[in-house]
Amino acid sequence: MSQSDDRQDVTRETEEQFRILVQGVTDYAIFMLSPAGVVTSWNVGAERIKGYRQSEIIGEHFSRFYTDEDKAAGAPAQILAIAAREGRAEREGWRVRKGGSRFWAHVVVDAIRDEAGALVGFAKVTRDITERKEAAAALEKANAALFQAQKMEAIGRLTGGVAHDFNNLLAVLSNGLEVLALQARTPLDKKMIDGMRRAIDRGASLTQQLLSFARQQPLQAQVHDLNGLIREFTPMLSRAGNRNTHVELGLHATHAFASVDAARFEAALLNLVVNAVDAMPTGGAVTITTDTVQSETEVTPALPAGHYVRISVADTGSGMSEDVLAQAFEPFFTTKQPGKGTGLGLSQVYGFIAQSGGDVHLSSEVGKGTTVDLYLPVAEPPAAVGLPSTARHETVLLVEDEPDVLGVASELLMNIGYEVVPASSASEAALILEERADIDVVFTDISMAHGMSGLELAQLVRSHYPAIRVVLTSGYSPAPLHDEKSELRDLIFVQKPYRLADLAKALRA
C-alpha cells in the first residue's frame, strides 16, 4: 500500500471518529446546512432538543425552527448572511420544537468553505438554555423586589421623621390656640381662632397620611370579619362612582377574619375605588373580591409563608405602564392632573396594610386595567375584653423635650385646672419622681432626642411607682402599645396634635 493510501485511510478513520463524536453529543444540537439553509446532517442532540428525527428533517429548510415573528422579520436569512460575510454569527432567542413549544436557544453558525474559499455550507450548533434564562429572570425579579422594598423603607423612614417634626410644630400651634380660645372675648376673636383651627386640622390630616405611609400611624386594631366590613361600607363605595361605573362584590363564602383598624381599612378601600373610577373615564366596573390564601412558600417578596386574607380591587380602566407601576406607592407621585390628587392615596394604603402585618401587590396592563391585592394575616374570631378602671388625677408630671411644646402644653394643662411639673427629658422626670411624692399622672412624649425614651420612662413608672398613671403622646403609636404580650398595652395614648377635649378625656378617663 502506498503512503498516499495510508494518509487517505487515516483521514477516513479520523472523519469517522469525528462523525461518531458529533453524533454522540446529546447536550448540543449539531447539524450542517447547505449554502441555502437546507439541513444536510442531524445529530442525536438535535433530535433531543428540537424533537425531529433525522428522517423527518434532512432536506428541510432550517427556518422551521424559528418563531413566526422572527421568520416575518427575516431572521433566518440574516444569520446566514452574517455568518457568510464574517465567518461566524452568534445569537440568542426563542426557537420552536417539533410540537410547537418554545425554548430559549443559544445559537452559533459557522461558515464552511473549501480550499478555494468557496462557501459549501454552514455548521450550526444550538443549545437549550431555557433554565439559565429563567434563573436569571428570577434573580433579576428578586433583586428588583429587594431594591423596591429597601427604597420604600428608606422613603418611609424619611417621611416618618419629617411628619413627626411637623406634628410637634402643629402641637405648639394647636395648644396655643386652645389657651387663646379660653381667653377669647369677641366674635371676631373666636372666628379667627376657628379659622386657624381648621388650618391646623388640614395640616394634621396631611401628617397622618404621611405617617400612614411610614407605618407610624396609630391604629385602633381589632379583629373584624372583613366581608362584613365591606358589605356595610358598600353603599359609601358605590357613591364614589358615577353613572357609568358601578361596584361589584365577589366575597368569599366563609368569614374572613383579620386584625385591622376598621376606619383605616374602609378609608383604604375608598382610596382604591376612587382610583379605579378615575382610571375609567368612559365607565366600567370596579370588582371587590375576597378569598383566603394559605401558602407554604412566600406569598409576596415581603410576606413569608402563612395564612392570609386577600382583598382584591380590580378595574377595567386605562392601566399603568411599568414605569408608573414602579413608582405607584411613592408619596406625592401621581399621574392625575394638577389639583386632581395628592399622590398619597396608594402610599397611604401601602403604609396601612404593611403596618397591619400585610402587604400590597399591584398588577396592571395598559389598556386592560389594574388589580390591587391586599394581603392581611388571618386572625382568630374576636373575644370580649374588659376595660381597665380609671380615676381622676390632679398633679401632672409633663415630659417633653421640645421647649415650645413643653411651654404651651403646660399652659394648656394649668388652664384646665391641673398642677403641672415640667420636665425636659425622661431622665429629668425620673429624678423628679424620686424627689416628689405628689405626682398623680405622668404625661410624656414617646420620642426623645437623647437618653431615655418615653416608653422606657413608662416602664420605670410601672415597675417603681405603680400608683402613678401614665399617659403617652406622639404623632405615631409604637408597636408595644398594641402587642398583647407587652406590659404597656393598656396605657392611655393621645395623638399629636391633640385638642383640649382629647387631653382632658385622657387625664380624667
Automatic annotation (TrEMBL):
SUPFAM superfamilies: ATPase domain of HSP90 chaperone/DNA topoisomerase II/histidine kinase, CheY-like, Homodimeric domain of signal transducing histidine kinase, PYP-like sensor domain (PAS domain). Residues 89-141 form the PAC domain. It holds the Pfam family PAS_9. InterPro entries: CheY-like_superfamily (IPR011006), HATPase_C_sf (IPR036890), HATPase_dom (IPR003594), His_kinase_dom (IPR005467), HisK_dim/P_dom (IPR003661), HisK_dim/P_sf (IPR036097), PAC (IPR001610), PAS (IPR000014). The modification 4-aspartylphosphate is found at D445. It is an enzyme of class 2 (transferase). Keywords: Kinase, Phosphoprotein, Transferase. Residues 161-380 form the Histidine kinase domain. Residues 14-71 form the PAS domain. CDD domains: HisKA (cd00082), PAS (cd00130). Its EC number is 2.7.13.3. Residues 395-509 form the Response regulatory domain. The keyword Endoplasmic reticulum does not apply. The keyword Transferase applies. It catalyses: ATP + protein L-histidine = ADP + protein N-phospho-L-histidine. This is histidine kinase. It comes from Paraburkholderia graminis (strain ATCC 700544 / DSM 17151 / LMG 18924 / NCIMB 13744 / C4D1M). The lineage of its organism: Bacteria, Pseudomonadati, Pseudomonadota, Betaproteobacteria, Burkholderiales.
